[in-house]
Amino acid sequence: MNDVLAVTGLSRSFQQGEVTIEVLRGIDMTIAPGEIVALLGPSGSGKSTLLQAVGLLEGGFEGSIRIDGEEAAKLDAKGRTRLRRDALGFVYQFHHLLPDFNASENVVLPQLIYGTPRAAAEERAASLLSALGLGHRLTHRPSQLSGGEQQRVAVGRALANKPRLVLADEPTGNLDEATADRVLGEFLRLVREEGSAALVATHNERLAKQMDRVLRLHEGHLAPAV
């Protein structure tokens, strides 16, 4: 079976005055269908830059990124948008929920954009949020939810369109330790139940060990954690 993600020779540098800063240096990595991989590294190590590249959110990269067998470098802006919509889901450190929409509507909206009929989208949202322990909070807006509940909604939104690959950037970094453990546990359980693969950036080695495989990013290079 083809890898969900195949990255080859991925590099990214930034220019600060006369100084060139190499953030990523020839990254090679693959993620198999259904595999959950932790991307471990301290703040500033380039984890977010790597996720932005894989998520097709930013240009200026060298190398190859293949998502579900499709070479991103060959796509124009419209094609990258389509690939993000059809194959990827995103969870960030801050939930970025739409404040004027309730929990269910935040999960319904990406499905409507995808083209899912409203009734099916609402059923899918209710199912996901119930699986995350929020079946009684469907009509609550983000301001009426706790931080952990808001992040659970963000997880549901990321999985709404059944993505092949979920990209999570410090998804529990804004939560206290006990809440982070619960949210990550629910995230990992639901991702596995949905059959998606995931790349999860974190600086927390304890949380990283709960995943199938751990990679460490250090000085722009990627290697298995030891």
From TrEMBL:
The organism sits in which domain of life? Bacteria
Answer yes or no on keyword Membrane. yes
State a GO cellular component annotated for this protein.
membrane protein complex
Keyword Nucleotide-binding found: yes
Q: Which GO terms describe its biological process?
A: lipoprotein localization to outer membrane; protein localization to outer membrane
* Gene Ontology molecular function: ATP binding; ATP hydrolysis activity; transmembrane transporter activity
Q: Which Pfam families match?
A: ABC_tran
Residues annotated as domain ABC transporter: 5-226
Q: Which UniProt keywords apply?
A: ATP-binding, Cell inner membrane, Cell membrane, Membrane, Nucleotide-binding, Transport
The similarity annotation says: Belongs to the ABC transporter superfamily. Macrolide exporter (TC 3.A.1.122) family.
Protein name per Swiss-Prot or TrEMBL: ABC transporter ATP-binding protein
Q: Which organism is it from?
A: Sphingomonas paeninsulae
